[in-house]
Design brief:
This protein has helices spanning 4-15, 18-43, 55-60, 65-85, 87-108, 112-131, 135-138. With 140 residues, the chain is an all-alpha fold.
């Protein structure tokens, strides 16, 4: 027999509107992922991030590639925190950041698969922005 708290928890998830559920999933993902990827810019555990940096980027911002990635990491961490606190604003910040990443990858002339994946993430960030309006986010 299920406990009363387990029954209540199950009831909350089955009666929560789909838009609210989608909002919570997207807000969680767009909080956690940028923070984790931002932290990894300092450790390069997941990949060597400088490989994904177009030479034009360091021509515009004259920093060594790894230093450039440190700045990128800080911006990504900030973006994740903003999504957690102010999802409507944070989602636009993440969307703009993804546009920059996509342009960088296209300028690089490779990693088109990653650029396409990031376009999908851009669409998700914009969906989070739309879900952040009105009553969906009011209880957040």
């Amino acid at each position: 027999m299920k406990s009363a708290s387990a029954v209540r928890a199950q009831h909350v998830y089955t009666t929560m509107p789909a838009a609210r559920q989608a909002f919570l999933v997207l807000r969680t993902v767009f909080t956690v992922a940028p923070i984790l990827f931002g932290l990894d810019k300092f450790t390069n555990i997941l990949t060597q991030w400088t490989v994904y940096l177009a030479p034009q980027a360091t021509a515009v911002v004259p920093l060594p590639p790894q230093t450039f990635m440190y700045v990128v990491g800080v911006v990504e961490i900030i973006a994740g925190v903003v999504v957690a606190v102010r999802p409507k604003l944070g989602s636009l910040l993440v969307a703009a950041w993804l546009v920059g990443i996509i342009i960088n990858l296209l300028l690089l002339g490779s990693f088109y698969d990653v650029a396409l994946r990031d376009f999908g993430l851009l669409v998700g960030a914009l969906a989070l922005n739309r879900l952040s309006t009105g009553t969906t986010a009011a209880a957040a």
